From TrEMBL:
Keywords assigned: NADP, Oxidoreductase
Upper classification of the organism: Eukaryota, Fungi, Dikarya, Basidiomycota, Agaricomycotina
PANTHER family assigned to the protein according to its UniProt record, in alphabetical order: RETINOL DEHYDROGENASE, SHORT-CHAIN DEHYDROGENASE-RELATED
Record protein name field: NAD-binding protein
GO MF assignments: oxidoreductase activity
Keyword Cell cycle among record annotations: no
Domain of life: Eukaryota
Gene3D superfamilies attached to this UniProt entry: NAD(P)-binding Rossmann-like Domain
Annotated InterPro entries: NAD(P)-bd_dom_sf (IPR036291), Sc_DH/Rdtase_CS (IPR020904), SDR_fam (IPR002347)
Length: 315
């Protein structure tokens, strides 16, 4: 286990800070006319750039975020840049009630979904949701789990209507998952939650995101839905605003614009090259990578799935 973490860590950080050139660019995105996408956290950073690439190639895109004013501002700016308008979808991933409401709103408007980008991310904060969950784990893992689960019927309709017979679900993770593990007691208010530093809660959430993506891949991959997770690279986003100065300053020389962070996401979500990569972990830029072997532990995957299902029952 320790050897795997060391090896995955060295490889992961090298790929993050020295990604090289990408064989895939936004110009390589195929025509997406007739396809529907949902992007969480789409009003800023990587999500914004993902939506920009999708709109530029003809997709109908729902920008999912929690702040109506920021949504409106971002949609207007994107319209100026692309000449096309994204559709707002209000969702607070830290509220399971809000997640269901957003899913119901989408399902009431669209019969099919072809691409779901679980992109929204919460950084290192020491807060609890109104329902008592760790804000970081709920926003990065549980909320996205519930959203994907609720949208499975639309994704299956997307499979039926897509020319390649596939729908895609792409989850934004991080190289920092190599420093994570799953302490189930820390997912909610508890002594374990209070003892865990915010940095490790973030790493845990990124580890958990890969685990749950892999579990979705096992359960729905044979139905034509392709689930992937990815490391976007060292990207200059608002997540870094939550870090201490001594954590941030060494990263500045290695950071890339958010448009680079969107490259691997768009490759995973649109390219014919990734159509058979169900359950894969991808790295910058547009390459197949290696996540911790623990993220593929079937017992751990089932345990996390069962925990998530128990939380969303009757929500």
């Amino acid at each position: 286990m320790i050897t795997d973490r060391i090896a995955a860590g060295f490889q992961g950080f090298y790929e993050t800070f020295f990604p090289g050139n990408s064989h895939f660019t936004q110009k390589d995105i195929p025509d997406l006319t007739g396809k529907v996408a949902v992007v969480t956290g789409g009003n800023a950073g990587i999500g914004y750039e993902v939506i920009k690439g999708l709109l530029d190639h003809g997709a109908k895109v729902y920008m999912a975020a929690r702040n109506p004013e920021r949504l409106d501002e971002s949609i207007k700016l994107l319209e100026k840049e692309t000449g096309k308008r994204a559709i707002p979808l209000i969702i607070d991933l830290n509220s399971l009630v809000s997640v269901r409401a957003a899913a119901n709103e989408f399902l009431g408007k669209e019969p099919a979904l072809h691409m779901l980008f679980n992109n929204a991310g919460t950084g290192e904060v020491d807060e609890l949701t109104d329902e008592g969950y760790d804000v970081v784990f709920c926003g990065n893992v549980l909320g996205h789990f519930f959203l994907a689960q609720l949208l499975i019927p639309a994704l299956l309709n997307g499979v039926s209507s897509a020319p390649d017979g596939k729908a895609r679900v792409v989850t934004t993770s991080s190289v920092l998952h190599v420093l994570g593990w799953l302490n189930f007691e820390s997912f909610r208010d508890s002594p374990a939650w209070r003892r865990m530093f915010g940095e490790f809660r973030y790493c845990q959430s990124k580890f958990g995101g890969i685990v749950i993506s892999n579990e979705f891949a096992k359960r729905h991959g044979d139905q034509g839905i392709v689930f992937t997770s990815f490391n976007p690279g060292s990207i200059r986003t608002k997540i870094y605003d939550t870090m201490y100065w001594f954590e941030k300053w060494p990263l500045y020389p290695t950071q890339y614009d958010a448009s680079y962070g969107a490259i691997t996401a768009l490759w995973a979500g649109t390219s014919s090259e990734t159509v058979d990569m169900n359950g894969y972990y991808l790295v910058p830029w547009a390459k197949v990578g290696r996540a911790l072997e623990e993220t593929r532990d079937p017992a751990l995957g089932k345990k996390l799935w069962d925990w998530c299902e128990a939380q969303v029952q009757d929500k």
